[in-house]
Amino acid sequence: KTSDGGYILAGTARISSISRGWVVKTDKYGNTCAINLNGNCDGIGAEGVKVFSRTFSRGIINNFYKIIETSDGGFVISGVITTPSFSGKAWALKITNFGRFCDDSLGDCSSVLDGISVFSRTFEDASFSDAVQTNDGMYVFVGRNSFVVGPQIWVVKTDANGVTCNYGASVDCFNSSSGVYVRKFAGTYSANSVDKTLDGGV
């Protein structure tokens, strides 16, 4: 449920033989706008609530697993993209409250649209399944990586623009000035959810 009384959904839509990440915003009755053949539309629902449908693609298969509302009114999405040439990239995407986003056709991007910071970031050989906004206004994404044989739990903290520290296949990282970090946990595991703790951790 969103702060304006509507609802936000994230998943996958198959359009023109490509599985695209799909986000739909509805009013409190579940109504949205008239979705076109590309899966997109804008509108106003009951009681003036913004509604929209958006599809997103950076690969042949694009899956969204979790969406959260952020303190500035935007939305952060966790997912994965794959193509025939690579196993997968974790995808961290931030959009505005009307589904607007930066142009990632040439790669990762960040911008400010309608007063909301947005970004699109990918991370090699990994996938994200959940995210949370931390008390300092940054984000923690969790999922798994495939840097070694078998998946490992992967925890990535980014700044407000989706940027983290420089990590390697066998090296974690931490930036003491910004507070971002990358952590992995050995073994054949995957993290499916994340939440904040009372003391400010995750």
SSE topology:
Blueprint: E1 7-15, E2 18-26, E3 41-44, E4 50-56, E5 61-69, E6 75-83, E7 86-95, E8 109-113, E9 116-124, E10 126-133, E11 139-145, E12 152-158, E13 173-174, E14 181-185
Antiparallel strand pairs: 1-2, 2-4, 3-4, 5-6, 6-7, 7-9, 8-9, 10-11, 11-12, 12-14, 13-14
What is the tally of helical segments?
0
Question: Using DSSP, what is the number of strands?
Answer: 14
Structural class: mainly beta
Mean pLDDT: 92
User: Which bin fits the share of residues in helices?
Assistant: under 10%
Are there runs of 5+ residues with pLDDT below 50, and where? none
C-alpha termini separation: 22 Å
Order of helices and strands: EEEEEEEEEEEEEE
Beta-strand percentage?
Answer: over 45%
Compute the CA-based radius of gyration. Answer: 17 Å
Largest sheet: 5 strands, antiparallel
Order of strands in the sheet with most strands: 5-6-7-9-8
General form: globular
